[in-house]
Each structure stands twice: as structure tokens, then as C-alpha cells.
Amino acid sequence: MARTGSHPAVRLKQDHRTLRNSGQLTPWLTDRGAFDAGLCDARRLYLALCVKQQCKALEISQPALGSDKREEQAKKLATSALKKALRNWFGVSDKEFEAWHAAQPARSTQIELELDEEDPAPGAPV
Predict the structure, then answer these.
(1) Distance CA 22, CA 63 (A)
(2) SS3 of 100, please?
(3) Distance between CA 32 and CA 9 in Å, rounded?
(4) How many CB atoms lie within 10 A of CB 90?
(5) Using only C-alpha atoms, what is the Rg of the chain?
(6) How many CB atoms sit inside 10 A of residue 54's CB?
(7) What is the predicted pLDDT for the residue at 54?
(8) What is the pLDDT of residues 73-109, one digit of tens each?
(9) Distance (Å, rounded) from C-alpha 29 to C-alpha 38?
(10) 5-36 in b/e burial notation, b at 16+ Cβ within 10 A?
């Protein structure tokens, strides 16, 4: 019979929590502030991507839904999915997630580029 915590996924989660609680990320990554800022940006950008994907899915599945309602529902669905994934995969508590989410700007400050279909892909011969 296997010992409790002997499964690799359980050990990984335990190791992650131990490092997080000690304040140390790894021996080679020493700047916790820079890491946290990058992590925050990555989560924000991923959430924005998930919201866009949900909006497109809702546009197809519920075409009568207005734009504002569709975006509101997409934000709820994407936020809920990200919260659950972070809890399950990385041990992020609901309280930690809510604190991070509340600290995010209401509107994304990311600049979006609109590329024409006729424009060549970056790095493609002109």
C-alpha cells in the first residue's frame, strides 16, 4: 500500500507550498517581487484571453445575448474557471485569488494590435 503523499503530484504540491511558505522560490530565482509582478501579469493576460474566448463561444451559442451581457457573463465564467484551476493545480486559496482579482484594474490596459489578413506574418519574406 502506498504511503500518503507518495504520489508525484501530491509531493509536487507539498514542495510548492513549502517553498511558498518559506518565501524562497528557488535558489536561482531570488527576486520575489519581480516574480510576483510577472505572475500577476501572466494571470491577468490569461484571464483576458479566457474572457475573449468565452465571449466568442457565447456569441455563437447565444446570438440573441447583447454585447454587454455577453461580456459580463464571459467574465464570470472565465474568472470562475481560472479560480478553480489555480486552486486545483497550484494550491491558490479562494481568499488569495479574490485579493489578486480585486487588485486588478477594471479595464485591461493591454494594447491590442489589429492585424490585417493581407499583412505578412512577422519574419515572413516580404
Answers:
(1) 50
(2) helix
(3) 24
(4) 13
(5) 19
(6) 20
(7) 95
(8) 999 999 999 999 999 999 999 999 999 999 988 764 4
(9) 13
(10) eeeeeeeebeeeeeeeeeeeeeeeeeeeeeee
Cα distances (angstroms) measured from residue 31 to each of 27, 38, 105: 10, 11, 24
Residue type at position 100: W
Predicted confidence (pLDDT) per residue in 18-70, tens digit: 666 665 556 677 788 888 889 999 999 999 999 999 999 999 999 999 999 99
Q: What is the pLDDT of residue 113?
A: 41
Evaluate whether 115 touches 40 at the Cβ level (below 8 Å). Answer: no
Report residue 15 as a C-alpha cell: 514542495
CA distance 106 to 48: 11
**CB neighbour list of residue 92: distance below 8 Å, 6 or more residues apart:** 86
How far, in Å, CA of 124 to CA of 126, rounded? 6
What's the gap between Cα 119 and its chain centre? 30
* pLDDT above 70 (res 122): no
